[in-house]
Design goal:
Blueprint lengths: L3 H20 L27 H13 L3 E11 L5 E12 L5 E4 L1 H4 L4 E5 L5 E10 L4 E5 L21 E6 L7 E14 L5 E8 L11 E3 L5 E8 L12 E5 H5 L2 H7 L5 E2 L2 E5 L2 H7 L7 E6 L4 H5 L6 E5 L2 E5 L3 E5 L2 E2 L3 H9 L6 E8 L2 E8 L1 E2 L5
Antiparallel strand pairs: 1-2, 1-4, 2-3, 3-6, 4-5, 5-6, 7-8, 7-10, 8-9, 9-12, 10-11, 11-12, 13-22, 14-15, 15-18, 16-17, 18-19, 18-20, 20-21
């Protein structure tokens, strides 16, 4: 008995030990030591924006719904001269409630199918209305309701350094806003050969897909149509140098594009040579600048208005010219210094417009009213 009692006590003790350490182990829980608290600096709950940020947001919200994605499908030749479909993409923006959309000509050139996707992701088939390849402009139209046209501004008095915004679809990323400044105003030539007078150079990021989209001023008004970028060969992405067609160039042709499908390009009907102070001194002219009329086109606007061409043969180097004609020095009160300036002035008019041409006939200064003709109608 003396051995049985200690043995029984030992068995009971072992049983209790097994019960609490093994059998009931599933009821036990591991207690982790509390982790040290990370001492971070939290921003104050401040939703205020500065004036520039507020204006950026306002310009974007007011205009993004009017910017569209333009997709064009055309047929092209592959390496084996077989016809294969090709797809292009660009941007555009709504200019009236009738669904007219302004974009670049190169965005829809040779397209057999044009589709327009609005900011609300609805897609519509578009029909071409008019194009002006010489200025890389085109208008297409969609049939849709509740369209919000953009406000067309004035590009005449742009200043280098003023703020601008570009909205478009770079690389297909719809509704993208970038900002920058007007970097310069200069004449540039596009890869397709079109010359843009007074093109707006900007450092706002413009990439493939932005073509045809609007360039806006700080009031949210359209001042240009984004059209091309300067980049290294083979690298089609922004290098901080983009160009836009001034909106005034587009506004001058919108009615013609919608009404006639083309631009009734005006013509004065004159052949001229530019005058420098040296030439003026040699010829004894009354002004040391302007364009000397060497010949007028038969039946053209200048001839109908009584502007005179040259009557005396002379040579500039090996080039024969006729001297003695009228010297054009101004149009509508603005001086004309050279041929590009005359061309730029003509681009702001349409065939049938009346302009006042200021000339010198000999030493006599006079104004002549001219009704501009249409370019393709004259030699």
């Amino acid at each position: 008995m003396k051995l049985v009692r200690p043995l029984a006590i030992a068995v009971v003790f072992v049983g209790f030990f097994f019960y609490y350490t093994t059998y009931r182990s599933g009821m036990l829980r591991t207690v982790n030591a509390p982790a040290p608290k990370l001492d971070t600096i939290e921003a104050a709950n401040n939703d205020s924006l500065d004036a520039e940020e507020q204006n950026n947001i306002a310009v974007y919200r007011r205009n993004v719904g009017s910017v569209v994605n333009v997709t064009s499908k055309a047929m092209t030749l592959d390496w084996f001269y077989g016809l294969v479909p090709a797809e292009g993409q660009g941007s555009g923006f709504i200019i009236d409630r009738e669904g007219h959309i302004l974009t670049n000509y190169h965005v829809i050139a040779d397209a057999r199918l044009i589709q327009v996707t609005l900011h609300n992701r609805k897609t519509y088939g578009a029909r071409p209305v008019g194009s002006d390849p010489s200025h890389d402009l085109a208008i297409v139209q969609i049939k849709a309701g509740d369209l919000a046209p953009m406000t067309l501004g004035d590009s005449k008095s742009l200043q280098v350094g003023q703020k601008v915004y570009a909205i478009g679809n770079p690389f297909g990323l719809a509704g993208t806003l970038t900002s920058g400044i007007v970097s310069s105003i200069r004449q540039v030539k596009e890869p397709g050969g079109a010359t843009i007078d007074e093109a707006i150079q900007t450092d706002a990021a413009i990439n493939p897909g932005n073509s045809g989209g609007p360039l806006l001023n700080s009031h949210g008004e359209v001042i240009g149509i984004n059209t091309m970028i300067a980049s290294n060969p083979g690298v089609e992405q922004s290098a901080g140098i983009g160009f836009a067609i001034p909106i005034n160039t587009a506004k001058a042709v919108l009615n013609d594009l919608v009404t006639f499908g083309r631009v009734r390009r005006p013509s004065l009907g004159v052949y001229t040579i530019p005058i420098t102070p040296d030439i003026a001194d040699q010829l004894g002219l009354a002004a040391d600048y302007g364009l000397l009329v060497v010949r007028v086109a038969p039946g053209g606007a200048a001839e109908r208005a009584g502007i005179k061409g040259g009557t005396e043969r002379a040579y500039f180097g090996n080039t024969p010219v006729m001297l003695g004609g009228d010297l054009i020095v101004g149009i509508d009160g603005e001086e004309v210094q050279d041929q590009p300036q005359l061309t730029q002035t003509m681009n702001n008019h349409r065939a049938g417009d009346h302009v006042k041409i200021t000339i010198y006939r000999g030493k006599r200064r006079m104004d002549i009213e001219v009704t501009l003709g249409e370019l393709h109608q004259q030699v």
